[in-house]
Automatic annotation (TrEMBL):
InterPro entries, per database record: CoA-transferase_III_domain (IPR050483), CoA-Trfase_fam_III (IPR003673), CoA-Trfase_III_dom3_sf (IPR044855), CoA-Trfase_III_dom_1_sf (IPR023606)
Keywords: Transferase
Protein name (record): CoA transferase
Coiled coil (UniProt feature): none
A GO molecular-function annotation: CoA-transferase activity
Naturally occurring in which organism (per UniProt): Verticiella sediminum
Highest taxon in the source lineage: Bacteria
Pfam family, one: CoA_transf_3
Amino acid sequence: MSAPTGLPLAGLRVADFCWIGAGSYTTKIFGDLGADVIKIETSTRLDSLRLAGPYKDGKPGVNRSGYFADRNTSKRGITIDLKHPRALDVVRRLIAQSDIVANNFAAGVMEKFGLGPDDCLRIRPDIIYLAMSMQGSQGPQRDFRGTGSSIAALTGIQELSGLPERIPAGTGTNYPDHLPNPCHAAFALLAALRHRRRTGQGQYIDFAQTEPMLALLGPTFLDLTVNGRRQTRRGNVHPWAAPHGVYPCAGTDRWIAITVMDDAQWAALVETMGRPAWALGAGWETMPERYRDRLELDRLLGEWTAGQDAQALMQALQAAGVPAGAVQDARDVTRTDPQLAHRQHWVRLPHAEMGESIYNNLPFRFSQTPVRPTRPAPLLGEHTREILQDLLGLAPAEIDELEAEQVLR
């Protein structure tokens, strides 16, 4: 079964060698938008996400990872052992019928298989080749390997995340894998495809996963170059605004983030609190005074919020013009968030082994073209015979022979 028609990227085909996070998310975007994304795997060295929880019903299995499933919607899957001598011929035939070749291996890995950018451009001169290594293909650190946490450390995000008196905390997840890298890579691919449409030329995109992270740190670098200040961890403390933080609410481990960026917002917060005496008599009408006494202000504000329901307080503060957000957990986000429900963000698809499962929808809506994940993540090797027979034209007997020789594993 080929990719659905009528979607924005229908008619494109991606030979997807990606694994783990950033690369798989990049190609997922293309798949959800209608491209025929063929995920190329091998059972001899599994995609690490297949072995990463959470697992459906807490039962581990190569086809039961929710993490893997969410990063690989709308794709077809094929297994082939690239180390087998006969594998290269099959893969080359697939590349010849693809518009994009994508991988996020370390620099030089694809070249060892005879599938580097020059090799693929010889197979198809107008191919778009995306290589998402950690540090790019050239330079003194081209051979460095790592994950999202390594990238966050190298680019300074770790240093800025956490409390001043504690060790660098990071973002709690491999943040580079989930937003900066896949989004920048998708943008680069679309630009290369537009260039190809205009000129007929293929393109090699040498993508360094460290570099998109630097775009997040503009003010930090500017503060250093202009003012000579080296920023470091400061928790929830703002450089000049107060109150600015996360405060306890009623219930177990319930919190709310409140940000007051000007005096009008402070006045609105005071009104919402019912004009308590402690907020009126402390001379906190202006920001410098509030910032000077921010520790005391945070203590008193936290004592007041501790008796409030986080969701109700968020609604009241938002209505008054005060930026606020209840700190939601996974249950809140997936089951009770009214905005996500209204936008139909959560999509349920039937998975062959996990049954009906929940997936992220794309974060945008087209007015003329409904887009959403079209199929669940593939089982390991689920579409191998389908692709070899229907797309590459191999006879059933040929496929049987490849299976017998353990090429397709």
